[in-house]
Amino acid sequence: MWTQILVMINWFTVKLKYTKQLDNGTLKRVTEPYLLAGMTFTDAEARIYEELGTTIRGEFLVTGIARTDIQEIFPFDGSNVWYKCKISYESPDADGGKSKKITQLMLVEAGTVKEAYDNLAENMSNLMVDYKVISVAESPIIEVFYPKENEKRVEPAEEGPMKGMIPNEDFASEKASNPIDELEANE
User: Fold this and answer.
1) How far is the C-alpha of 121 from the C-alpha of 85, rounded, in Å?
2) Domain ranges of the chain
3) For labelling, which of 22, 67, 80, 177 has a CA lying 20 to 30 Å from the CA of 13?
4) Contact by Cβ (8 Å): 10, 38
């Protein structure tokens, strides 16, 4: 029997440096941040080469990779303008003590700051606690690359003791031997 184990996906900001052709036709060396899902830093670097290797003309260089603390991403209208929204709320302590203040970052796609706020409010409407929007600011992120469907790792499930083990011929014997007898025989 096989079972699926989902791998923890992290969000990484990857900065690329390359020569970009501007609208007026001039070439300019730019550094742009992209957000992508990956399991490790190495995976993030490999994925950015995979995603943008064919779309960016010429050479490009990965100048930085950093894990980001974005909790949720809310795409909306395809405007490719992303807003970083910071919210906070209080969560009751599990031990019944003081409540704990939790701050989270969300990335919201919208055309304006007001649209970003409205889209955030719409998505947070099912949150069962009262929250405050601390800030809504335009993010420099150029594009977001979501997790791939095949980023699920499948591993065999344990079905019982020794299941799936292959016996080694070196340790197989026809009769059980006594270690003391073997020592006396070697002397």
Assistant:
1) 11
2) 2-186
3) 22
4) yes
